[in-house]
Amino acid sequence: MKIDGVHYRTIWVADDGWSIEVIDQTKLPHAFQTVRLRSADDAARAIKDMVVRGAPLIGATAAYGLCLALRDDASDATLNEAYQMLAATRPTAVNLKWALDEMVKAVKPHGHSVRVDAAYAAASKICDDDVEICRRIGENGLKIIRGHAEVKPGKTVNILTHCNAGWLACVDWGTALAPIYMAHDAGIPVHVWVDETRPRNQGASLTAFELGRHGVPHTIIPDNAGGHLMQHGQVDLCIVGTDRTTATGDVANKIGTYLKALAAFDNDVPFYVALPHTTIDWTLDDGVAEIPIEQRSAREVTHITGRTDAGEIVTVEISAPGSAAANYGFDVTPARLVTGLITERGVAAATREGLLSLYPERR
């Protein structure tokens, strides 16, 4: 995607040929800055501190983190140590472990002398594959949006999304936002209701930033406004992303997604989840019982960062001093509330058979 006319991916090999550059998403939307990663520790901190975030991008960053570790020492011991460190950074997104496993498979059979080159080639492939997967998700989701446009000719298709599942969450294109970009580019009138996504405000800061730079009409709304809009017929469909999807179609996404799915179900609004196959955890059946839910710092709830009218970036406390705060990063939406899963292979019912119809090799 483009920022001020310049094409960017979210992660790339720097000009020196070995260090890794990423967009610092903690600075958006007020400043566009990049960060250079020179070690596996740097990659782990970038993931943990949410300099990079979004399941596919977390996986890509971890992959390059292994590359950086192997540059210092290509031994099995270093490979295993870096794997464990990177895998522990964030527990919910399954892409993290998937990418690390892919890297180990690509690197371990080689002798130490060629492991670094093999690692960089494997990480590059993970990134390139993610771009193509997201492009295909966009094409499959575009058909759904086009169908809604056809039943209300000349009118705007209103889409609600939660958190950020655009190109900033992936390497390029995105998952939930890819169909929206393609619809907009195809001339279909679309408008996006952007949930602010407390407490980190990824919707207000990241999704709105992306859509604005691409010229897609959008409106930021408080997290609790979605149900009201659905009751009044102002939402045609919801599209969200997911950080882990069970083999039975349950989806873990940013906290608050479950409530939107309930409101959509109650108001007969289609609720779609866009995801790459790398986000499917085929080992799990019950998302509520089995998906680990990350708990983050209470400070993200009690404090907020923004820009003053004078242009200064400040962090302020918004809660009653001394009050405890809980910060669950994700919730699980049961498959029964999901209209369909938009994947790179097509749209499936949120059921085991639905997923297996697209991924028969998993039978």
Pick out its properties:
2 domains, Rossmann fold, 39% helix, alpha/beta, 363 residues, 19% strand, Four Helix Bundle (Hemerythrin (Met), subunit A), seven-stranded mixed sheet, four-stranded mixed sheet
What does this structure look like?
Pfam families: IF-2B. The protein is an alpha/beta fold. It folds into two domains: 2-129, translation initiation factor eif-2b, domain 1 (Four Helix Bundle (Hemerythrin (Met), subunit A)); 140-362, 3-Layer(aba) Sandwich (Rossmann fold). It is built from twelve helices and 18 strands. The chain has helices at residues 40-48, 55-72, 76-87, 95-107, 115-150, 178-185, 202-214, 226-231, 257-266, 287-290, 299-302, 352-358; strands spanning 2-3, 6-7, 11-13, 20-23, 34-37, 157-161, 190-195, 218-221, 237-240, 244-246, 251-254, 271-274, 280-281, 303-307, 313-317, 330-333, 340-343, 346-348. It starts with a strand and ends in a 5-residue tail after the last helix. The model has no long low-confidence stretch (mean pLDDT 96).
**Name given to the CATH architecture of the largest domain:** 3-Layer(aba) Sandwich
- What's the helix-strand series? EEEEEHHHHHEHEHEHEEEHEEHHEEEEEH
**Percent range for helical residues?**
25-40%
Please state the CA-atom Rg, rounded to the nearest Å. 20 Å
Strand order of the largest sheet: 8-7-6-9-12-17-18
Number of domains: 2
| SS field, number of helical segments | 12
CATH-derived topology of the largest domain = Rossmann fold
Major beta-sheet overview: 7 strands, mixed
Q: Give the overall shape.
A: globular
Give the percentage of residues in beta strands.
15-25%
CATH superfamily of the largest domain: Translation initiation factor eif-2b, domain 2
End-to-end CA span: 36 Å
Number of strand segments: 18
Which residues form runs of ≥5 with pLDDT under 50?
Answer: none
Instruction: Provide mean pLDDT, rounded.
Output: 96
| CATH top-level class of the largest domain | Alpha Beta
Question: Class by helix and strand content?
Answer: alpha/beta
Catalytic activity: 5-(methylsulfanyl)-alpha-D-ribose 1-phosphate = 5-(methylsulfanyl)-D-ribulose 1-phosphate; 5-deoxy-alpha-D-ribose 1-phosphate = 5-deoxy-D-ribulose 1-phosphate
Enzyme class: isomerase
GO biological process, one term: L-methionine salvage from methylthioadenosine
InterPro entries: IF-2B-related, IF-M1Pi, IF_2B-like_C, Initiation_fac_2B_a/b/d, M1Pi_N, NagB/RpiA_transferase-like
